[in-house]
Every structure is written in structure tokens, then in C-alpha cells.
């Protein structure tokens, strides 16, 4: 048992509740800390220092990860010299039934968060490197914008289908610059049919950057398709208006995505100018693994943070959330266990994309990663495809761990070659 004072902090949007427990688990102090008040934060620090003096032991601070609202208080207490553990809400939720009565308020929650330290050893959360923290914030924003862009593209497709279902026969990619330019100015078949021929051809040529002959052919096809679908088009004012709104949103989101990407690139370039460009070197190592591009590498690096926290591959697998859940009670042992999905959702998303890239073939029909392709096919003989893909994802985490541990680029080796190299090392030792 840990015989030291504990401060539990329940974090809210505008203020937090702090409860300090004595070594005997009695509440000896409570305080409401407003996040916009430097005075409140200073008073909280002084209260913790007084507790340290009274019990001759520095209090350990435990707070729940609540969006970004905990960050200001975390940084302030960490800089004041206190050990602070930021814990997952899943952990605090596990002790909600510690009492029989059903009571839920900030003061009670602060005490329960403090008690959590008594039940399990919690590790101090370190302030991440400033560059890593910036990359993490930029990456998360990048994926949020990307998801919003996908949502608006789907909405746009729904409107285009109503206005002119066969528009895709002319422009297979309706999100291309030329297609969006045509839709924005001539949203319905009636507008296309009334349009000036030369102006419409010029619009297509300008935005596609293709030849006049190509643009003319596209115009002829577009005009033909517009005549064909005109009687069926639902070209009411609502659809026409929303088409313009969605096109505007798509353009804005694409511009913002480019801004975030440029900010990521700028951060990497700044790191490369340093004497010890650790960030840039780590990204280069990660990109040596097939299927990992710049954004994927940056996301992995930013989400993992301090790699020294992972002493073995299994811990990194659990952090990715692809470790199997365990169902065992008495003589019963579950056999249909799924992924725990308790780790980083963003890491799993990126890993899934990388795994798909590694089991695909190139245009010349050769495998992108012959070793993982063969491994996946062998797994598919006895397991469902999704389970086999999960096994590939785990393999990739092992690759990531090895690359970051050894600080060496990835080398494509067959299982036989790998076994021979290990045998040679043992013989030499």
C-alpha cells in the first residue's frame, strides 16, 4: 500500500474539483480550481505544498484525461515539481461502484480518482517533447478535417445523383477541379443545355489543364448526358443551393488540410536544421517500412510519444489496442476473444491502412510486401480474413518496435532468413 497523501482532481471544462486524501484515506482538503484563474492554480500548489509539510511526504496527483481541459492544470502542477498521473476515463469508471449509494458529483469523483492510486500503482505522466506534442495536435486535427471532408463529399454525391445521375459518366471523379467547376456554375442539366458552348469548353479546359480537343470531347459527352437525364433531374432550389454549399465546404476543407500538412512539414524541416534531428531521423526509419508514408509515420511517432515507455513489443501492441481481450473465469476460458481496442483509436486506424497496403499487389501484379502477403494468405487458410488481417497488423507493430528499438531501417527478410540470422548471432555469442 502507498502511504502518502493523494490529490484526486476531477476535471471539467471551466473548473476542476480537487480532493486531497491523507495516508489513511481521509479527505483533509477540498478545493475548486478555476481554469482561467492563475490565483486558483497558485492556491492549489500552495495547498499541496502545505500537505507535503504536514505529512512529510510529497502528494501524488491523479487527474482524469478530459479532452484538452486537463492540460493547463497538468502543466502547472508538473512544473511545480509534483508527480502527476493522467489516467484514462476507463480506469476511473472502474471504481464508480466503490460505494453502495448511487452518488455522482464532482467532489465525490475527485475522491474516487484519488482512491484509484491506492488500488493500483499509477505511473507519473511526463510532459511530452514540445515538437511531439505539436505533431500530435496537428495529426489529430488532420484526421478530423479529413473525416469532415469525406462526409461532405458523400453529401455532395447524394445531391449530384439527384441532379444528374449520369454526371459520373462524363467525370468519373466528380471531386476533380474540372468537375467541381462545372457543377458550381452549371448545377443541373437545364443549365448545361442553356450554357454557351465556347464558355463551357473553356471552363473545362482551364480547370483540367488538358487540350482543347479533350475539353471539346468532354463538352459533347456532357451535353449528350444532360439531354438524356433532363426529364428525370430533381433540380429544385434546395438541391441547387445545397450543391453550392457542399462544393464550398469541400474547397475550404481541402485548403485547411493543406495548411495542416504544410505545418507538419515545416515542423519536420525545423527539426532537420538542428544538430540532433531525432524527429526527422525517426520518421525516416518508420517510412522504411512498406506502406508507411509521411502522414502515417508522423501519426505513429506523435501518438506513441516516449518510446522508452515500451520495454517489449507486447506493450506496444496493447498501446495500439490490438491485443486480444481475455475472458476467463473458474474453469471457463473464452475462445472467441476480440481485439481489446483499449489503445489509441488513431493508431489502429493508421495501422489498418498500412496492413491493407502490405497485402496488396502492385500494377505489375507483384506483391508490395511478399513476406506479409504470404503470411496473410497462410493465415486465411485457417482463419477468417479479418482475423488474418489482425495478425498482419500485429506483425507490423513488431516491425515498428524493432525499427525504433534498434534505430535501424526495416529490412525485408523471409522467416527462413530471419531464423538463420538469429542462429548466427547465438552461435557468435
How would you describe this protein?
The chain has helices at residues 38-55, 71-79, 89-93, 106-119, 130-164, 177-185, 189-194, 197-208, 212-229, 237-272, 278-286, 294-304, 313-320, 345-358, 370-380, 385-406, 415-428, and strands spanning 6-11, 15-21, 27-34, 60-64, 83-87, 328-329, 332-333. By secondary structure, it is of the alpha/beta class. The protein has three domains: 6-127, Ribonuclease H-like superfamily/Ribonuclease H (Nucleotidyltransferase, domain 5), CATH 3.30.420.10; 136-252; 275-428, no CATH class. Strand 1 (6-11) and strand 2 (15-21) form a beta hairpin. It is globular. The protein starts with 5 loop residues before the first strand and ends with a helix. The mean pLDDT is 86. Pfam families: DEDD_Tnp_IS110, Transposase_20. GO terms for molecular function: DNA binding; transposase activity.
Protein topology:
Elements: E1 6-11, E2 15-21, E3 27-34, H1 38-55, E4 60-64, H2 71-79, E5 83-87, H3 89-93, H4 106-119, H5 130-164, H6 177-185, H7 189-194, H8 197-208, H9 212-229, H10 237-272, H11 278-286, H12 294-304, H13 313-320, E6 328-329, E7 332-333, H14 345-358, H15 370-380, H16 385-406, H17 415-428
Parallel strand pairs: 1-4, 4-5
Antiparallel strand pairs: 1-2, 2-3, 6-7
Helix pairs in contact: 5-10, 5-12, 6-8, 8-9, 10-11, 11-12, 12-14, 13-16, 14-16, 15-16
Amino acid at each position: 500500500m502507498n502511504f502518502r497523501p493523494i490529490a484526486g482532481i476531477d476535471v471539467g471544462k471551466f473548473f476542476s474539483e480537487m480532493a486531497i486524501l491523507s495516508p489513511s484515506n481521509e479527505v483533509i482538503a477540498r478545493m475548486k480550481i478555476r481554469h482561467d484563474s492563475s490565483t486558483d492554480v497558485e492556491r492549489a500548489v500552495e495547498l499541496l505544498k502545505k500537505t507535503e509539510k504536514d505529512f512529510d511526504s510529497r502528494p501524488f496527483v491523479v487527474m482524469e484525461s478530459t479532452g484538452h481541459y486537463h492540460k493547463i492544470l497538468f502543466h502547472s502542477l508538473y512544473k511545480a515539481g509534483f508527480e502527476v498521473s493522467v489516467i484514462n476515463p476507463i480506469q476511473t469508471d472502474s471504481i464508480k461502484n466503490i460505494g453502495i449509494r448511487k452518488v455522482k458529483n464532482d467532489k465525490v469523483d475527485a475522491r474516487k480518482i484519488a482512491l484509484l492510486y491506492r488500488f493500483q500503482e499509477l505511473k507519473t505522466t511526463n510532459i511530452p517533447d514540445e515538437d511531439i506534442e505539436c505533431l500530435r495536435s496537428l495529426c489529430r486535427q488532420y484526421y478530423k478535417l479529413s473525416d469532415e471532408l469525406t462526409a461532405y463529399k458523400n453529401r455532395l454525391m447524394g445531391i449530384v445523383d439527384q441532379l444528374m445521375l449520369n454526371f459520373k459518366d462524363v467525370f468519373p471523379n466528380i471531386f476533380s477541379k474540372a468537375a467541381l467547376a462545372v457543377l458550381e456554375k452549371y448545377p443541373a442539366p437545364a443549365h448545361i443545355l442553356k450554357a454557351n458552348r465556347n464558355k463551357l469548353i473553356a471552363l473545362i479546359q482551364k480547370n483540367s489543364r488538358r487540350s482543347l480537343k479533350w475539353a471539346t470531347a468532354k463538352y459533347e459527352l456532357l451535353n449528350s448526358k444532360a439531354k438524356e437525364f433532363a426529364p428525370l433531374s430533381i433540380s429544385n432550389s434546395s438541391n441547387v443551393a445545397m450543391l453550392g454549399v457542399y462544393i464550398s465546404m469541400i474547397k475550404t476543407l481541402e485548403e485547411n488540410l493543406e495548411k495542416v500538412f504544410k505545418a507538419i512539414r515545416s515542423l519536420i524541416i525545423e527539426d532537420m536544421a538542428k544538430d540532433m534531428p531525432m524527429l526527422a531521423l525517426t520518421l525516416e526509419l518508420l517510412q522504411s517500412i512498406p506502406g508507411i508514408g509521411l502522414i502515417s509515420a508522423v501519426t505513429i511517432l506523435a501518438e506513441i510519444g516516449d518510446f522508452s515507455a515500451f520495454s517489449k513489443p507486447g506493450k506496444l501492441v496493447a498501446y495500439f489496442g490490438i491485443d486480444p481481450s481475455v475472458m476467463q473465469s473458474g474453469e471457463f476460458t473464452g475462445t472467441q476473444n476480440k481485439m481489446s481496442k483499449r489503445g489509441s483509436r488513431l493508431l489502429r486506424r493508421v495501422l489498418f491502412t498500412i496492413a491493407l497496403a502490405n497485402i496488396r499487389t502492385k500494377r505489375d501484379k507483384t506483391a508490395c510486401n511478399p513476406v506479409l502477403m504470404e503470411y496473410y494468405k497462410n493465415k486465411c487458410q485457417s482463419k477468417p480474413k479479418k482475423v488474418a488481417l489482425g495478425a498482419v497488423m500485429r506483425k507490423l507493430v513488431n516491425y515498428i518496435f524493432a525499427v525504433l528499438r534498434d534505430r535501424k531501417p526495416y529490412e525485408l527478410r523471409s522467416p527462413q532468413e530471419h531464423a538463420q540470422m538469429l542462429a548466427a548471432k547465438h552461435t557468435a555469442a
